[in-house]
Write a structure and sequence with these properties.
The complex is a heterodimer of chains A (114) and B (113). In chain A, the strands form three sheets. In chain A, strands 2, 5, 6, 10, 11 and 12 form a six-stranded mixed β-sheet that branches. In chain A, strands 3-9-8-7 form a four-stranded antiparallel β-sheet, with no helix packed on it. A two-stranded antiparallel ribbon of chain A has the order 1-4. In chain A, a hairpin with a 5-residue loop joins strand 5 and strand 6. Chain A has 114 residues and is mainly β. By secondary structure, chain B is mainly beta. Chain B has no helices and eleven strands. In chain B, the strands form two sheets. In chain B, strands 2, 4, 5, 6, 9, 10 and 11 form a seven-stranded mixed β-sheet that branches. A four-stranded antiparallel β-sheet of chain B has the order 1-3-8-7, with no helix packed on it. In chain B, strand 5 and strand 6 form a beta hairpin. Chain B is globular and about 40 Å long. Classes of the chains: A mainly beta (114), B mainly beta (113). At the A-B interface, strand 6 and strand 11 of A face strand 5 and strand 10 of B.
Amino acid sequence: GDSVTQMEGPVTLSEEAFLTINCTYTATGYPSLFWYVQYPGEGLQLLLKATKADDKGSNKGFEATYRKETTSFHLEKGSVQVSDSAVYFCALSVASGGSYIPTFGRGTSLIVHP
Amino acid sequence: DAGITQSPRHKVTETGTPVTLRCHQTENHRYMYWYRQDPGHGLRLIHYSYGVKDTDKGEVSDGYSVSRSKTEDFLLTLESATSSQTSVYFCAISDPGDSQPQHFGDGTRLSIL
């Protein structure tokens, strides 16, 4: 079946450090790929998405590029802030019988220290 | 922010009792989802709906049922709650023309003793 694998957390960084959170996927069809962010005590928010190979999704300084050849969608940010501390979820979605059912990874916790 | 309200936000109940969680949206969106979130498992889809009276099962649907009699409301029912259903439950909706969950409620923390 379809699945998403994220790097284990927590990822601990100092403010202004470079962030990479790895995400790889397996899918039977041609998926769309997503990153979500969950701040403490809140629901998930869609952060960015990419729907075809080589597309780059970006939002709030975060970027991820859809790499079909390596089945990856790594999340990057050039300079993290304390306010970026959250749990980040990679997800994919593949059409199935007219619907798109998303599959989520287990989440990666990011902790940014001042 | 998308208008999604989950109720109750917290609930403690006993094994064997029925429990109903409500998700209400003000966006008139077609797709609605129920997920549970557990440590080490991420988010897992319980049920989803693609319209009034149109629902389907997700990967962890056993022990759960849903109903959608109006566009704005999506109810999740645990007919006879078990301790394994202790979790945080999230409702989500999709933007028009899109079936990916994009807006989530703030969650319901359910504890079954």
